[in-house]
Amino acid sequence: MTNAEKTDGRQTDGRRRGALPRRRRSPISVAFVVRRFLATVVLCLAVTFVVFLLSNVIPADPASANLGDAARSDPEAVAAFRAKYHLDDGLLTQYGEFLQRLAHGDLGTSIQTQQPVLSDLADRAPATAELAIAAVFMAVLVGVPLGMVSALKRDRPADHLLRTVSLTGMSVPAFWLGLLALQLFYYRLGWVPGGGRLPVGGEPPPSVTGMYTLDALLTGRLGTFTDAVHHLILPALILATPGIALLTRFTRAAVLDVISEDYVRAATAKGLKRSTVLRRYVLRGATPLVITVSGLALANVFVASVLVEQVFSWSGLGSYAYQSAVRLDFPAVMGACLCITLVYVTINLVVDVLYGVVDPRIRVGS
Amino acid sequence: MIGAIARPPRVSMVARAARGNPLFASALTVSVGWLVVALAAPLIAPASPLAQSPDLLVGPSAQHWFGTDELGRDVLSRLIWGARVSVTIALIVVLASSLIGAVVGGVAGYFGGWVDEAMMRFTDLVFAFPGVILALAVTAALGPGLRNAVIAVLILSWPPYARLVRGQVLMLRGSEFVMMARLRGASAPRTLLRDIAPNLTGPMLVMATVDVGEKILLVAAISFLGLGVQQPTADWGSMIATGTQYLEAWWLPTFPGLAIVTVVLANNLLGDRLRDVLDPRGVTGDRRPGR
Amino acid sequence: MTPVLEIRDLRVKMPTPRGHVTVVDGVDLTAEPESIAGIAGESGSGKTITMLAVLGLLPPDAIVEGSARLAGRELIGLPERELRAVRGRRMAMIFQDPLASLHPMLTIGRQLTDHMRAHLGLGRAKARARAVELLAEVRLPDPAGMLDRHPHEFSGGMRQRVAIAMALACEPEVIIGDEPTTALDVTVQAGILRLLDRLRRESGVTVVLVTHDLGVMSALADTLSVFYSGRVVETGTAGTVLRRPRHPYTAGLLAALPSPEAKVDQGVRPIPGTPPVPGDRPSGCAFHPRCPHGVDQCAVEVPAPVELDDRHRFACPPDPFAAGRTS
C-alpha cells in the first residue's frame, strides 16, 4: 500500500460509524506495525533478489563483470571466482549463497578502492546522511510555510506565483541546478567553497557519528564546525529544491483539504482566533500528510544524492555509486544500490509508522 | 459513481482548456515546439552535431549562438539533435509502459481474485523501487548504452498505469452499462475494450503528459551518470555532464538544462490543466511525491 | 417578551463560477427566550446558510444583507473581532455530523476547553474541571476519563453529546442545532433530542433547531418556520403550523409524511416535481410549478405574507381557492 492510498483510506476508515468505545489505549496498533514491517521485509528481499539477478545472472559472464580488468584475462582467477561463488550451481542455491554472504556483510571487493564494499559504504554513509538530513530540514522549513501561504491565499497572485514556482522546482534536474549554482557562487562569485566536505587539508573532527558538523559540535571544534557548515549549505540547498517544491505543493493541498473540513468551521464557530484555528486545527490536521511527504522527500534525497554529490565532490554514497558506475566497478555499484534502496525502503516504513503515531485514528488498526 | 461514463477526450476539450488560459496555451506551444524540433532536427540545426572545429570552448557568439564544447562542436546543434534523443526515448517509454500497464491492470481488474492480488502485489513491489537507483543497477549490469537505459526505465515505468487501469476496470466492471453490453451478448474482452477503453483515455492522457516530462528527467539523469547515451551522440544529460569538467564554460550545461526544464515544466503545466478538464473525478490523483 | 434572536429580511448571495447567486432571499425569523425555534425545509432551501450567515461563518466572498440581532445587538456587518466574542460565547452551534465537526487528532479535553479558556479566561485546571462537569451534564459515562481520548473512540451519539457539551461550555444564550440528529442512528436520535429539551428547560438556553424531520418538530419545537427555496413560506407556533398548515408547501410536506395519525385512506402523497436549485429559482412564488392551487398570478409576483394573528404568517395570496384549500 502506498502512502497516497492510505491518505484516502484513512478518511473512510475514520468515518466508520458506531465504532465501539475502547478502554485500552496503545500508542499504535501492533498489527499495523507488524503488517508494514512484513511488507518491508518482503520488499527488502525483493531488492536483494533483483541485485542478485543483476549481478550474478544477467551479465553474460558474472565472473568478468565482478572481476577487474586484470583478473578478467587470467583464466585461473576466473575459475577461482566461479568456484568461490558457486556459479555453476542452480539459481536458487546461488541466491541462497548470495543471501548468506550478504548476511555476513560480504558485498564483494571494490575494484577501485580494493576495499571490501561494505567498509567503503560504512565510510561514506555518514556524509550522505548529513547532507540528506540538512536538505530535508531546509525543505520542511521552507516548503511547509510556503504551502500554507499558498493555500491561505488561494487563487490570489501569491498562490499563482507559488504554484508556478513549485511546479518549476519539480521540473528542474537537481544535478543541473547544482552545477549552475557552483558555477555562479563558487566560480564567479567565490562565495562558497568549490566542493568537498572541508577545506583542502582541513582535518576532520574526531569521528563520533561521522557527520562532520555534528562531530565538530560534539567535540567543541567551532572552527571546523563553521567550515563544515560552509561546505554543507549549497549542496544541501540544491538537494532540498525538489523537496521544497514537493512540500509546498502537498502542504497546500493538505491545508486546502483540511480547511474545508467541518471541524475547522466548528472551531471558528467556537469563537477561536483565526491564528489559533490555523495553528491548532488546520496545521494539526495537515500534519500526517506533511510528515508523509517529508519522509518521502528524505527518501528521495538519498536517491538524488547519486546525482548531486558528484557535482559537489561530496564523498558520500551517491558519488561512490556514480564513480563506481562510471568505472564499471560492478560489486561497488551493486553494493551502493542495495544500500540506498534499503535506506529508501526503510524510511518509507518509518514514515508509515510515524503516520500512525500522529493520526490517532490509524491506531484502531484493522 | 457506478455507471458514470466519462466522455473520451476530444480535441474540442483541449481547445476549451487552452482558451482563456495563456499559461496552458504557451505550455502547449512549448511542448509541441520541442516535438517539432526533434522531428526537424536535420533541417533546423545550423551544423552537424558531430562536426568538430578548432574553436574549443568558445562562448556564445554570432557564429555559435550557444557556444562550442570541448571538441569545438556547436552546442546549439547538439542541443537540437539532443531533443531527438530525449523526446523519442520519452515517447517510446511512455507508450510502451502505458501499454504494459494497461494489460497488467486490465487483466488484474477484470479477473479479480487471486490473479488481481498477485499482480497488484507485484506492481506495488516494482512501484516501491527508487527509479534512478534501479536504472543505475540495471545499466551497470547490462552495460551502459541507450538501449539498456530504455530497458531499465521501462521496467520501472508501468506500475502507475497498471493501477489506474485496474481501478477503472474494477469500477466499471460492475456498472450497469457494462452489464448491459454483456446482456446484449458482447464477449468479455470485447466489452472491456469497447466500453471501458473510452473511459480510460482521458486519465491516461493526463498521466502520460506528465510522465513524458518525468521520463525526460530520468533519462537525462541516467545519461548524466554516463550510463545512458554514449559519446559522441548528442544528448542533454551527457552535455550537462561535460559541464562538470569545465566550470569556466557556463554555456555547456546551461542551455541543455534549460531545454530540459522547459519541456518538463510545459508538460507538468499541461498535465495539471488537462487533469481539471479530462479527469474531473481525479482518478489519476496528484502525482505520487517524487519518483 | 423581547426575542433573543431576531432576523429581519436577511439576504445571502453565494459566489458560484457563474457569479453570485441568491440563496437566502429576505428571511424573517424570531426566537423567544428559552424556547425551541424549529426551522424546517428540504436540503438546499437555505436553512443552514441562514444560520451560518448569522454567525459570520460564510466565506468572505459571500454577500450578506439585512439584519440579525442577538438580544438587540446587530450581528450582520460586525467586525471579525467582535463576532469572535459572540461565537461560542453567546451563540454556539452544533453541526450535523459530530465526527466531522470534532477534530480527529485532538483530544476531547482539548476541544472542550480551548474556547472556555479563550472566552472565560479560565486556567487549564479550572477549564478541565468545568469540562468534566459539562460531560456529566450531557450524561456521558466516565467524564474525567474521556478528556484524554480522541473522538474516534466513541459512538456517534456520544460524539454528538460531546459537541453539545462544547456548545454549552460558555453558557451561551442561543444554541443553533443544525440537523443535530440527522447523521445519527434512529435509536440514538431521541436521546439527543431529549437532552436538548432538558437543557432548554434547565439552563434557559434558546435552541434554534434546524431539521427536516417534522415529527421532531411536533414533539419539541415551540415555533416553526418552513423554508422553501431561500424564503420562509410559513411561520407560527408549531402546533398551529402542523395542525392547520396554510401554505400549500407545508401542507404538501405533511401529506408526504408517513404518519400513523394520518387518515388511512389518505396515504402518502409526495409533492410532485423537485425543489429548485438556487440560481435557477422559478419567478414569483418559487413553489408555483409544484403547487396544486397555483393561479397565474403566482408565477408573476412574490406573494406578500398574510398574517392571521401575530403568530401565524404564510406567504400565499388569499385567493378564491384559499378557503377550500385547508380543509
UniProtKB/TrEMBL annotation, chain A:
Q: Which GO terms describe its molecular function?
A: dipeptide transmembrane transporter activity
As for membrane topology, the entry says: Multi-pass membrane protein
Region spans: Disordered: 1-21
Pfam families tied to this protein: BPD_transp_1 (PF00528), BPD_transp_1_N (PF19300)
Q: Which SUPFAM superfamilies match?
A: MetI-like
UniProt lists compositionally biased (Basic and acidic residues) regions at 1-16
Q: Coiled-coil segments, which residues?
A: none
Name its cellular compartments. Cell membrane
Domain ABC transmembrane type-1 as annotated: residue spans: 125-355
PROSITE patterns in alphabetical order: ABC_TM1
What are the entry keywords? Cell membrane, Membrane, Transmembrane, Transmembrane helix, Transport
Task: Give the stretches traversing the membrane.
Answer: 32-54, 131-152, 164-186, 228-247, 289-312, 332-358
How is this protein annotated for GO cellular component? plasma membrane
What the record says about family reads: Belongs to the binding-protein-dependent transport system permease family.
* Record's protein name: ABC transporter permease
Automatic annotation (TrEMBL), chain C:
Q: Its Gene Ontology molecular function terms? A: ATP binding; ATP hydrolysis activity
Q: Which Pfam families does its entry note?
A: ABC_tran, oligo_HPY
Membrane disposition = Peripheral membrane protein
| InterPro entries from the UniProt entry | AAA+_ATPase (IPR003593), ABC_Ni/Peptide_Import (IPR050388), ABC_transporter-like_ATP-bd (IPR003439), ABC_transporter-like_CS (IPR017871), Oligopep_ABC_C (IPR013563), P-loop_NTPase (IPR027417)
Q: Which UniProt keywords apply?
A: ATP-binding, Cell membrane, Membrane, Nucleotide-binding, Transport
From the Swiss-Prot or TrEMBL record, state where the protein is found. Answer: Cell membrane
Q: What Gene3D superfamilies does its record include?
A: P-loop containing nucleotide triphosphate hydrolases
What cellular component terms from Gene Ontology apply here? plasma membrane
* First-listed, main subcellular location of the protein, grouped into a coarse class: membrane
Q: Which residues form the ABC transporter domain?
A: 5-254
> Which regions span the lipid bilayer?
none
Q: Name one GO biological process term.
A: peptide transport
Keyword Transcription regulation applies: no
Family label: Belongs to the ABC transporter superfamily.
The protein depicted here goes by the name: ABC transporter ATP-binding protein
Q: Which organism is it from?
A: Actinomadura spongiicola
Taxonomic classification: Bacteria, Bacillati, Actinomycetota, Actinomycetes, Streptosporangiales
